[in-house]
């Protein structure tokens, strides 16, 4: 299987593919695919998704996919890598402030099982995405002044729409399982404030949601199957793994950002769950992007 790498921050291309089957490949970057016209099957990680015009797909680093074109298909492909949204971005004058954007990427990466491909079924969301993709392509091809900022803002809007769709899926699953609908307010608050240890202390969470600490603990466990502490630590664990692979932060910076005392504290945390240190995990699993 071919593995593709991206040698620039961002690439936007238009494709016209004829009827036929196209080979599976894997890549180490983020990819948006927007179907302008045509019909076929998009196979992602061994699952088949029929597509028609207006459908939108997101592919994450490590995903493998292929297309079977049933009717000649026109589509846009937008590729970007970890450098495009990084905590160390060296182009502050022409890029939007990254942190909120990276939060949306994190939410998507940490909730992949809630991604339903193609992403958007809501007609309003589909029309917005159509306009954004068209605008991105125009700006990228023309490369007029400030086009980078305009393109990045449009990508941020798409990521926001994906994140919102995922959160709707999460809420739907909790409701289907008979949980209290308000539990998602707690879950989303934890996710949104995972870098702020003070806000996500169990006692402060209880106060935030107008419950005694004991009542909050029982409520959280009843509706999620986890204690609040277990949920927070599991979320941090999964977040650390993604940060080690998709961020160029050093391990001490990752530890500090998530409220660990230092690198040694983070390594003890990971050894219990991974059986290895942060640097070893990064060394074994990192691939060039």
Describe what you observe in this structure.
Strands 1, 2, 3, 4, 5, 6, 7 and 8 form an eight-stranded mixed β-sheet that branches. Helix 1 (99-110) packs parallel to helix 3, helix 2 (123-142) packs antiparallel against helix 3 and helix 5 (202-208) packs across helix 6 (213-224). By secondary structure, the protein is α+β, with helices and mostly antiparallel strands. Strand 5 and strand 6 (47-51) form a beta hairpin. The protein is globular. Helices cover 47% and strands 20% of the residues.
| Main sheet properties | 8 strands, mixed
Q: How far is the N terminus from the C terminus?
A: 17 Å
The whole-angstrom Rg is 20 Å
Low-confidence stretches: 87-98
Number of strand segments: 8
Helices and strands, in N-to-C order? EEEEEEEEHHHHHHHHHH
Strand coverage percent: 15-25%
Number of separate helices: 10
Structural class: alpha+beta
- What portion of residues is helical? 40-55%
User: What sort of overall outline do the alpha carbons produce when their principal axes are compared?
Assistant: globular
- Average of the residue pLDDT scores: 88
For the structure shown, list the relevant keywords:
289 residues, alpha+beta, 8 strands
Short description:
The chain has 289 residues and is of the alpha+beta class. 47% of the residues lie in helices and 20% in strands.
SSE topology:
Elements (H helix, E strand, L loop, with lengths): L1 E3 L5 E8 L2 E2 L3 E3 L2 E15 L2 E5 L4 E4 L4 E17 L18 H12 L12 H20 L4 H30 L6 H10 L9 H7 L4 H12 L3 H19 L4 H7 L5 H12 L3 H8 L4
Parallel strand pairs: 1-4
Antiparallel strand pairs: 2-8, 3-8, 4-8, 5-6, 5-7, 5-8
Helix pairs in contact: 1-3, 2-3, 5-6
């Amino acid at each position: 299987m071919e593995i593709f790498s991206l040698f620039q921050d961002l690439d936007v291309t238009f494709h016209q593919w004829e009827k036929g089957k196209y080979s599976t490949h894997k890549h180490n970057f983020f990819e948006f695919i927007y179907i302008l016209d045509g019909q076929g099957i998009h196979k992602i990680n061994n699952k088949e998704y029929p597509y028609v015009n207006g459908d939108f797909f997101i592919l994450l680093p490590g995903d493998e996919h292929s297309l079977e074109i049933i009717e000649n298909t026109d589509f846009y492909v937008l590729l970007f890598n970890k450098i495009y949204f990084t905590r160390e971005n060296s182009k502050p004058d022409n890029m939007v402030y990254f942190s909120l954007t990276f939060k949306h990427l994190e939410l998507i990466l940490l909730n992949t099982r809630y991604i339903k491909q193609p992403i958007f079924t809501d007609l309003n969301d589909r029309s917005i995405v159509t306009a954004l993709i068209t605008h991105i392509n125009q700006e990228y091809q023309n490369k007029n002044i400030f086009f980078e900022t305009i393109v990045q803002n449009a990508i941020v809007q798409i990521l926001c729409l994906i994140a919102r769709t995922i959160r709707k899926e999460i809420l739907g699953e909790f409701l289907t399982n008979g949980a209290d609908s308000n539990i998602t307010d707690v879950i989303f608050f934890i996710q949104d404030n995972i870098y702020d240890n003070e806000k996500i202390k169990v006692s402060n969470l209880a106060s935030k949601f107008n419950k005694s600490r004991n009542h909050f603990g029982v409520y959280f466990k009843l509706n999620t199957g986890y204690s609040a502490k277990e949920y927070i630590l599991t979320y941090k664990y999964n977040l650390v793994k993604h940060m080690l692979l998709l961020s160029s932060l050093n391990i001490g910076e990752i530890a500090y950002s998530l409220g660990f005392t230092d690198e040694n504290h983070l390594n003890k945390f990971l050894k219990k769950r991974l059986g290895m240190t942060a640097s070893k995990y990064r060394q074994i699993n990192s691939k060039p992007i």
